[in-house]
Write a structure and sequence with these properties.
Blueprint: H1 2-23, H2 31-66, E1 75-78, E2 81-84, H3 91-101, E3 108-112, H4 117-121, E4 128-132, E5 135-136, H5 143-152, E6 159-164, E7 171-175, E8 178-181, E9 184-188, E10 195-197, E11 201-205, H6 206-211, H7 215-230, H8 244-250, H9 262-266, H10 273-289, H11 299-307, H12 323-343, H13 356-361
Parallel strand pairs: 9-11
Antiparallel strand pairs: 1-8, 2-3, 4-5, 4-6, 6-7, 10-11
Helix pairs in contact: 2-3, 2-7, 7-10, 10-12, 11-12
Length: 376
């Protein structure tokens, strides 16, 4: 009987909690103020996304342009614009983008990289793109991707953009592209402090965007991943570090540029500790060629160690070298690069410090050391 009473008491408690839960209604608030606050937060989210992508491209473009000679045949025309249409944005941000930029299915330039061919030629943020060369761009779903595909296939000759600012007549703007490394850059939605490359693309997770607080930090991260792509043949491995389908899912829109299943087709590449060390070494040269201050680059790994102490201890099972090793390697590489600058030598990685296959990948045999300083 006592056991039965205990069970009944327990059941009564469950029902009482359920009843309380059912009665816990949300406190009423003003519908108009709620709608207004929702719009404020959408605007903040839009601003944050635009700011992150602008920062990414502002750093990635000079890295890709100044390192084009290292990328050999893996280059493409670089214009320095970021294009979007209604369908290339996340659904929750479309209303804010329409109210802010009148963004619909017509592609618009949302960002122009400072110092890029697009800026020097007179393309402006907010311009609607009506035609690229002889290709008219209709206002329809996927129009921004159509623009980007056309730009990727452009040659070295000037390409004429037909654009129009709101309320103004169309104007024709010829833009002569720069050769740039053919990497495409994306921001992943994950809060992981990490970045990936697959031989063609670079994904920087949102967590890494926040951790890499300065432009120099982010340049170090991007150039490291770009270096993997430069040495894509010698660092090729059959295993995947991250399933491609997952990466395609977590990658956020780089406004106007979608992954188009690139990672599902190729998969992320898994790199050994030796490969990671080579990418650190070559990446720092790429960063220096683009004019970034490399003096504080080694300290990045001290900050990683402070946040993730497990990275300090070396391990044969780890995919990355330990942070003390990476700090010392970058410190020595900084000294090596500064010495070359003082001698007026080309900023080219030393082939004796790389495997011969890696040196061949970055075209060292085609670059004369006597060519003088590069990218400074």
């Amino acid at each position: 009987m006592r056991r039965l009473l205990v069970r009944l008491a327990a059941l009564a408690g469950v029902f009482l909690l359920a009843a309380c839960a059912g009665e816990a209604l949300r406190l009423p608030v003003s519908d108009s103020e709620l709608a207004a606050e929702e719009q404020v937060q959408r605007n903040l989210a839009l601003d944050s996304m635009l700011r992150d992508h602008a920062r990414l491209l502002n750093i990635a473009f000079p890295l890709a342009a100044r390192s084009a000679v290292l990328c050999g045949e893996h280059t493409m025309p670089g214009f320095g614009i970021n294009v979007a249409d209604w369908s290339s944005l996340r659904k929750e941000l479309r209303k804010a983008a329409y109210e802010r930029f009148k963004l619909d299915y017509a592609p618009r330039i949302l960002h122009v990289v400072p110092g890029s061919p697009a800026q020097s030629s007179g393309l402006h943020e907010g311009d609607r793109i009506l035609a690229v060369g002889k290709t008219e761009i209709a206002a329809e779903e996927g129009s921004a991707n159509k623009v980007m595909d056309r730009l990727h296939k452009a040659g070295t000759a000037p390409l004429v953009f037909t654009v129009a600012a709101d309320g103004e007549k169309p104007r024709r703007v010829p833009v002569t592209p720069l050769p740039i490394c053919d990497d495409e850059f994306y921001i992943g939605k994950s809060d992981m402090v990490n970045a990936y490359s697959d031989g063609d693309s670079v994904v920087v997770m949102a967590g890494m965007m926040r951790f890499a607080a300065t432009d120099e930090d982010l340049a170090l991260v991007l150039s490291h991943e770009m270096a993997h792509n430069v040495m894509r043949e010698s660092q090729r491995m059959p295993a995947s570090a991250i399933p491609g389908a997952i990466v395609d899912f977590v990658v956020s829109d780089l406004i106007g540029i979608e992954t188009r299943g690139a990672f599902s087709r190729g998969g992320g590449r898994r790199y050994t500790q030796d490969f990671e060390a080579e990418a650190d070494y070559v990446g720092l040269y790429m960063m220096a060629r683009a004019g970034f201050d490399i003096s504080g680059a080694p300290d990045f790994w001290r900050r990683i160690a402070a946040s993730y102490p497990e990275s300090i201890k070396d391990s044969l099972a780890a995919l990355h070298p330990a942070t003390p090793y990476r700090f010392v390697l970058l410190k020595e590489t900084v000294a090596e690069i500064e010495e070359k600058k003082s001698q007026g030598a080309a900023l080219i990685p030393d082939p004796d410090r790389l495997r011969s296959a890696a040196a061949k990948d970055i075209g060292l045999s085609e670059i004369a050391p006597a060519a003088g300083p590069a990218g400074n």
